[in-house]
Amino acid sequence: RISNLTMASWLAVSTDRSWSQILPYRDALYGISQNSILKATGGNMTEWSPAAWGEQWKQLAIGDSGEGTVYGLSTEGKLYQQALIGMSTETSWQQASERAFLQVAVSGGKIYGVSTDNRIYMQSEGAASYSSWSQAASGSTWTSVLLSGGML
After folding, report:
1. What order of strands is seen across the sheet that includes strand 94-95?
2. What's the gap between Cα 28 and its chain centre?
């Protein structure tokens, strides 16, 4: 269980893949390897299986409102979303933004993204329109966004 990990309990959860991201959520791990989304659950979490359709992913972010929405950032910078519960290789992604992003993060019911214009934008999770982003930070040379304890 992820919740039981301590400094002394590190173990290899994968030795046969190259990973670009690992993301814990509840009692599962989600990861991106070779642009595909994979999932590991139960036991020692060493068995990974395909978790979502597509082979073009570079980043995941999981929303913190309700049962969780997963946001997938494609290698082309397009942001997509779908419900995490029930996500499979058979379920579809819906485009979540007309804006292209370099990176995204979710916290406090808000989605933040560093756009290709190097500005940080945000919108509420579940916004009715995928064009309803507003600038969240001043400046014009952002390349990454990190959220911790409600701070940007």
Report:
1. 57-62, 69-74, 79-83, 94-95
2. 14
